[in-house]
Amino acid sequence: MAKILKIYPENPQENLINEVIKTLNNGGLIIYPSDTVYALGCNIFDIKAMEKLAQLKKIKLEKAQFSIICNDLSHLSDFTRPIDTSTFRFLKSHLPGPFTFILEANKSLPLAYKGNKTIGIRVPDHPIPQLIVEKLGHPIASTSIKDDDEVLEYSTDPELIAEKYDHLVDIVIDSGYGDNMASTIVDLTSGEPEIIRQGKGII
Length: 203
Prior knowledge:
Elements (H helix, E strand, L loop, with lengths): L2 E4 L7 H12 L4 E3 L6 E5 L3 H10 L10 E3 L6 H4 L5 H10 L4 E6 L13 E5 L4 H10 L3 E5 L13 H7 L6 E4 L9 E4 L6 E4 L6
Helix pairs in contact: 1-5
């Protein structure tokens, strides 16, 4: 059964964040809030956790396009090819924020991402994922929680999310109602921003 942790953005309790970190380090899956929708996350360096995440999404890991959640832009060089000054300035002016930026990947990607030519980077404008990444010491893999309802695309109620994923994840972070609009996906691989999916972020 998933453990529900009530962690609020205004005052995230350190002991609860530490519990999340311990779970991630032990290969667990978490559901966490962001500046857009609730999302599933795991340790990017734990291949078994990444496989569990792919299974949950009913896709093969090698075909998965899980974005990488960072707490700032300092991790960029770990995963992406060198980017020019204008692209970096563009990223800096939009992050933290409700965007996923597609960038060219380098050859030092974690095992689960090997062979990927591009990578999606997110820096959510929300203290909880930022704190998790900061305390963990490296980014996490992430994918949005879709809703099975034909009308609702994303689940917003953490209690209903916890009910649905009760036996599938280890921790659900309840941070109040989430948004129902996902991030805007922007492809920066050509040097010019190209919107792949219009979401919450406006460019």
